[in-house]
Design goal:
Blueprint (H helix, E strand, L loop, with lengths): L12 E5 L2 H4 L22 H5 L23 H15 L3 E5 L2 H4 L10 H16 L3 E7 L5 H7 L6 H16 L6 E5 L9 H5 L6 H29 L4 E7 L3 E3 L4 H24 L5 H8 L10 H7 L4 E5 L4 E3 L23 E2 L5 E2 L1 H15 L3 E5 L17 H19 L4 E7 L19 E3 L11 E3 L1 H11 L6
Parallel strand pairs: 1-2, 1-12, 2-3, 3-4, 4-5, 5-7, 6-8, 7-11, 11-12
Antiparallel strand pairs: 9-10, 13-14
Helix pairs in contact: 3-5, 7-9, 9-12, 13-14
Length: 480
């Protein structure tokens, strides 16, 4: 990309982002197998239920609703949705492939043709409008069979299954997809491994041992995928994807500053260091020693990780985290999914996520200063209640204000010298919330008539932000 002196570079990749399990529906169609998201009940307690002792990963339609089963029915309505993305002027569309559409159980030897053909149709439709797909290989939808029979990513065997899956889609879509990412928000497993790793630690004593062993297996699998992708699609760009939340010290007390530093190293940089630098960072060795973590590393693993480094860092940014070493219960920012204490300088969303546009500029500067590789903001957005007016309009100025300030922060980061590839706003069309299973927590530029109780026509309707973002893209970020 050629960089302008001011503003966004020519060729900047504007678009939107989704995940298969949150939009597709058709959970049993096309010979698709079950994945973790298919057994997630709807409602604010869904993650608590999922991680509770005795949860059996079975579908119980009498007890729970499962909004992911239909989601917004992208499986049947993708042409309509992609036409709306094209109307906004998307350059790219970030999506994921459902692993269980390609390998229904995860451990088969041959892929499922019906699943492969579905994504062929989606990619062809995107290319019809000149939209490049940005594909996440694994986005919170691990095959349920691998969870039940193998224990998720704790098992070394899953590396082989993932390699087979990744190789199959690289071969199939080598002429249709040039932007890839391996694991969605891989570092999020430090908070909640069930979604991305397929297990909850059996108890606190083994929590770190199990989680970091699973991380090692994912690092090996990611490196294999990078190398295989480069062999099959030489001009491809393949990145990692992390959840980035800068950690601020609550005050200038050196104890709190050191605590914030160590928390940021572990959460924000550990996974990225391995993906980008190809080595385990030095700071993790003390952590392993203090938490009795001893990794099983096979011959050749570390060499493979060194050889399979990524081309760019994809990141989600929703909030920052303010923290201190010792905190009282009433100080905690309970709505913030990354924890911490309440920041008196920040407002919060309807769901308690603290809003910090300057934190995005800080994040981009920190990441680029540390790694010197291109960055790609692949998730950012505001989950909020939207009101449909009597005349049918949806005036989501709250969303426009949020996105405007974050786009300004990206522009400032570019002026700071950060190499930024693009921006895909999360939930460009309303979708099922991962954390709560709600439809009322809306992110999209496009309203979908689907309610928390499952009712609705699934009609698509542009919001005010649709036309605003269309103009942002048309002017390459000059008019906000």
């Amino acid at each position: 990309m050629e960089h302008n002196q001011h503003g966004f570079p020519e060729g900047f990749l504007w678009g939107g982002a989704t995940a298969a399990n949150q939009i597709e529906g058709g959970f049993r169609e096309g010979n698709k197998g079950l994945n973790i998201s298919d057994v997630l009940p709807g409602g604010k307690e869904r993650l608590k239920i999922l991680m509770s002792p005795g949860f059996n990963f079975e579908i119980d339609n009498e007890k729970y609703r499962y909004p992911n089963h239909e989601a917004i029915d992208f499986y049947h309505r993708y042409k309509e949705d992609i036409a709306l993305f094209a109307e906004m002027g998307f350059k790219v569309f970030r999506m994921s492939i459902a692993w269980t559409r390609i390998f229904p159980n995860g451990d088969e030897l041959e892929p499922n043709e019906e699943g492969l053909a579905f994504y062929d149709r989606v990619f062809d439709e995107l290319h019809k409008y000149g939209i490049e797909p940005v594909v996440t290989i694994s986005h919170y939808e691990m095959p349920l069979h691998l969870v039940k029979e193998y224990g998720g990513w704790r098992s070394r065997q899953v590396v082989t299954f993932f390699e087979r899956y990744a190789t199959s889609i690289f071969n199939r879509y080598k002429d249709k997809v040039k932007y890839w990412m391996t694991f969605n928000e891989i570092n999020g497993a430090l908070k909640m491994p069930i979604m991305s790793m397929g297990f909850s630690p059996q108890n606190e004593e083994v929590r770190y041992q199990q989680t970091f062993q699973a991380f090692h297996h994912q690092f090996v699998a990611s490196a294999m995928a990078v190398k295989t992708c480069k062999q099959i699609i030489p001009d491809a760009q393949i990145g990692c994807m992390i959840l980035f939340a800068p950690v601020y010290s609550y005050d200038s007390n050196p104890e709190n500053v050191l605590y914030a530093l160590k928390e940021e190293e572990l959460f924000n940089y550990f996974c990225a260091d391995v993906h980008v630098r190809g080595v385990y960072p030095t700071f993790i060795q003390r952590f392993f020693k203090e938490h009795s973590v001893e990794l099983e590393i096979q011959d050749g693993d570390l060499e493979l990780i060194k050889e399979g480094t990524v081309d760019y860092i994809g990141l989600s940014y929703y909030m920052s985290r303010t923290d201190k070493k010792v905190k009282a219960e009433e100080e905690k920012a309970n709505g913030n999914i990354v924890g911490g204490v309440k920041n008196p300088f920040l407002k919060a969303s309807d769901w308690g996520w603290e809003i910090d546009p300057v934190g995005l500029r800080i994040s981009l500067n920190k990441l680029y200063g540390r790694y010197q590789v291109p960055l790609f903001v692949v998730e950012n957005g505001l989950g909020a209640y939207d009101q449909v007016e009597e005349d049918g309009t949806i005036n989501d100025d709250h969303r426009i204000d949020y996105l405007r300030e974050h786009i300004k922060a990206m522009e400032e980061a570019i002026a700071d010298g950060v190499e930024l590839m693009g921006y895909t706003s999360w939930g460009c069309i309303d979708l099922v919330s991962m954390s709560t299973g709600e439809m009322s927590k809306r992110y999209g530029f496009i309203y979908v008539d689907k309610q928390d109780d499952g009712s609705g026509t699934l009609e698509r309707k542009p919001k005010k932000s649709f036309y605003w973002y269309k103009n942002v893209i048309a002017t390459n970020g000059e008019q906000l």
